[in-house]
Amino acid sequence: MRPYLLLIKPTLRAPLLEQITDPRLRVFGAAFWGKPAGAAVVTLEKRADLLDLYVLPDYRGAGIGAALLTAIESELAQHAMTAIQALYRADEHTAAWHALLAKAGWVQPERMSRVFWNCRTVRGAEWVARYQFRPPYEVFTWTDLSADAEAKIAKRGEEGWYPPNFSPFNRPMTAWDPETSVGLRYKGEVVGWVLTIREKPDRLFVETMFVDPPLQRLGRGFMLVGESTRRYYSGNGNYAYWRVAPDNEPMLRWSRRAFGDHLVDEYDEWYSKKVLAR
Question: 144 by DSSP, 3-state: which?
């Protein structure tokens, strides 16, 4: 397995080598005259996720990529999995990758989001250090949310106060990082939140941000992000990232303007899937 994992993109290779005995992990390899020519990695949980597929340049065009996808589907059938999906970064291989997926019967890929990464130098940004809340505003740690406040937020969500994808209840409370997930109260009422997931000790995913629309226009969402950012980078944080819908022009502009030189990466993320024959 290890020789084939060496073909996987570097950002995945190290964590996969650490999880090499994980029963949820499947590594598929293709060889030519006994030498590794291609590899694919899939995780099997509630769904099947294709994490990567790579064929060495000298062996491309020989059907190895298609053969790897066929082998993956055979494995999934043995586990009664009915679908497989892939979320991947656009790069110089994207066009060839889309052609391979189309031939294999996957749905037309869709550009899902624009991904932004910043680094700990952002703690020196003026807006992060300067803008802090004062009464009647109050910032609190999200995991301290009371049951009564939770019920009120859920009820307001049912009434359309926030879009479903911004709901703070899309994950269990235990999923949110207790150090950097924060809520905002205004005159005692919860009016916003920034919720994060600590993927590694030094890597944070900012999954959800919502502030009551009238307060957004006053820059309160901007300030709440600053509060979460301050908390994260005052510790051992090195990198944080977030996703923005490709048609959300205000948020795209804000991400670039607010973080500027502190952005270390920005790219498109695509999604595709295939429903497997039963």
Answer: helix
Name the DSSP class of 138.
Answer: E
Calpha distance 93→262 (Å, rounded): 27
CATH code at position 31: 3.40.630.30
Number of domains in the chain: 2
Report pTM: 0.86
Q: CA-to-CA distance for 68 and 73, rounded, in angstroms?
A: 9
Residue 57 tokens, joined: 């340049």
What are the CA-CA distances from residue 219 to residues 9, 62, 83, 88, 253 (Å)? Answer: 39, 55, 42, 32, 14
All residue ranges of the chain with pLDDT < 70 are: 1-2, 11, 14-21, 278
Closest CA to 3 of 37, 52, 50: 37
How does pLDDT run across 146-157, given as a tens digit for each residue?
Answer: 999 999 999 999
